[in-house]
Write a structure and sequence with these properties.
This protein is of the alpha+beta class. The chain is built from 13 helices and twelve strands. It has two domains: 180 residues, no CATH class; 176 residues, no CATH class.
Length: 414
């Protein structure tokens, strides 16, 4: 048994040596044949990496909104046929926010929101920024940390204190390299003391810069800045992801009851469900990634057809050589194995070079596009495995054709 195994290995090694020598005799043709596989594998790896990177970026932007987040917006206001967008109507009140926190069991924390654009003046500079009125729970709901200082507390909210937490972009524009903590900033001609500096968070959904803002107690915003009696929205954190759908239904029923809405198509509010958005984005991203990979995979098939074409030409060119090998004792299985090894070598080398080119291309695309491409091990193994299968599949027919040649006819072939 061991002797038979050794003889088989030796025979395979000899056949492989003959196959590699044949490929080396036609270097340029072998390189051009492998080029189809190289392009195909590189395309698959790069496309999947770019798709995964885009999906990761969008998912990160959704996650940056907070964990298990529901946002209840006021309806839109129409004036002269022009819609003011979500939050422009006066429909959500502080009493509504309190009722949602009190009567919906799954609600872990809420933050009523009142926002406006104001000219901030400090340190001899002025900057137009977004001033957002929130509760003391806002940073917890949004999973946002402080780089320095502290968040205002419930007592500041109850007392409508003139304190503020500033975003990193706004802090840079107003104070430059200076530490903004303890400094004063004027909003609507009212001085506010900066007690906290937010960590940099970057662009959010829609591309808006989340760091260009100043956060103050919502009571202060409503009394001293906007004078609004209604809220633009309410940020709500749900206790767990599996309770979000139930909580959304309960909030919808509660607001319809409070606003005396009987027609389900006449809601004067809208609920933004972070989980639904994340699931939808992930589904779309997966479909796009699969589509990109499938389109790139077509080039692999084209490369396989190229291998078959060249191998058929090779069989024709080497008909006399095949006849001599058969005449001196080579079995049809040896001839078949030789041509299979040639085809497999071309596809494997092409697959290896293609993986390297694909990783490099995905890195280059990511640099140009401004986001990180995610090269998955799965896509590399898949592309490499498919290239191997293509080498065997498209190499089998030429190998079989060579193996069944009549040695007498082959020896007479010129």
């Amino acid at each position: 048994m061991i002797s038979w195994f050794k003889n088989a290995l030796l025979q395979i090694a000899q056949t492989a040596f003959i196959a590699l020598r044949a490929l080396r005799r036609n270097k340029m043709r072998s390189i051009l044949t492998a080029l189809g596989i190289i392009i195909g594998v590189a395309s698959v790896v790069a496309m999947v990496a770019v798709g995964n990177g885009a999906q990761a970026r969008i998912t990160a932007q959704v996650s940056a909104l907070g964990q298990n987040l529901l946002t209840v917006f006021s309806g839109s206001k129409n004036s002269g046929g022009v819609s003011g967008g979500l939050g422009s109507a006066s429909t959500i009140t502080l009493a509504d926010a309190d009722a949602m926190a009190r009567e919906v069991p799954a609600v872990a924390a809420t933050s009523p929101e009142d926002s406006s654009t104001q000219q901030a003046i400090a340190n001899g500079h002025n900057w137009s920024t977004t001033v957002v009125g929130e509760s003391e729970n806002y940073l917890k709901i949004r999973s946002w940390k402080l780089a320095a200082g502290s968040m205002f507390d419930a007592r500041d909210v109850r007392g409508a204190a003139k304190v503020a937490v500033i975003g990193s972009k706004t802090a840079t524009e107003l104070f430059g390299p200076l530490n903004p903590i303890g400094q004063n900033v004027r909003l609507n001609k009212i001085p506010f003391t900066i007690i906290g500096l937010l960590e940099t968070k970057g662009a959010g959904m829609g591309g808006a810069n989340q760091d260009d803002r100043i956060i103050i107690p919502y009571t202060t915003a409503m009394k001293r800045i906007t004078g609004n009696k209604y809220l633009r929205s309410v940020n709500i954190q749900i206790a767990s992801a599996d309770r979000m759908e139930t909580a959304q239904q309960q909030i919808t029923s509660l607001l319809r009851q409070r606003h005396r809405i009987r027609d389900v198509n006449s809601d004067d509010f809208n609920i933004f469900n972070q989980k639904e958005i994340a699931d939808t984005v992930n589904s779309i991203s997966m479909v796009i990634t699969l589509l990109l990979g499938s389109v790139a995979g077509i080039s692999l098939i084209v490369g396989g057809i190229g291998i078959m074409n060249i191998m058929l030409v090779s069989v024709t060119e080497r008909t006399r050589e095949i006849g001599i090998r058969i005449a001196v004792g080579a079995e049809p299985s040896d001839i078949r194995l030789q041509f299979l090894i040639e085809a497999l070598t071309l596809s494997l080398l092409g697959g290896l070079i293609g993986v390297l080119c694909g990783v490099g291309a995905s890195w280059l695309v990511a640099v140009v596009a401004g986001f990180k491409a995610v090269v998955s091990t799965g896509s590399i193994f898949l592309a490499f495995g498919v290239s191997s299968i293509i080498g065997i599949f498209f190499g089998f027919y030429p190998a079989h054709k060579a193996a069944v040649l009549d040695p007498i006819v082959a020896l007479r072939y010129e």
